[in-house]
Amino acid sequence: MLKTKMKHLLTAAAITTAFAVAPLSAQAGDKEMTSVEAGKKLAFSRSQGNCLACHAIQGGELAGNIGPALIAMKLRYPDKQKLFDKIWGKPNTQVPNSMMPPFGQNGILTDKQIHEIVDFIYTL
Question: Please, what are the domains in the chain?
Fold first, then answer.
């Protein structure tokens, strides 16, 4: 119960500040920017990552509400590898009765594509 309330509190706090945060600056290296841009394209693509089918993402249109809003991701997943494992579909990261498909385990996305999505999501 407390864990759920904490998630709701963090989500509410992040939503109120999400739109005040400046866009990702070009200070990062070209390789990272390329990976972030590729990850955004995959996440917003209806035929590939399709994250918007279930999640609200800043800048996305027609977002779903099945999964949590993808905000404050560094706070929620301080270890980037754990976020990768969650999207890939490692058994120890799957939530029972979750609608989220194991993208890597089922071959929906390649490891490279999942890394790109993680790089993008980690900027949110």
Answer: 2-19+29-121 (1.10.760.10)
d(CA 1, CA 9): 12
How much is the pTM?
Answer: 0.72
pLDDT tens, per residue, the chain with 124 residues: 556 555 555 555 545 444 444 344 444 455 555 899 999 999 999 999 899 999 999 999 888 889 999 999 999 999 999 999 999 999 888 888 888 999 999 999 999 999 999 999 999 9
Alpha-carbon gap, residue 26 to 42, rounded angstroms: 20
How far is 55 from 115, CA to CA, in rounded Å?
18
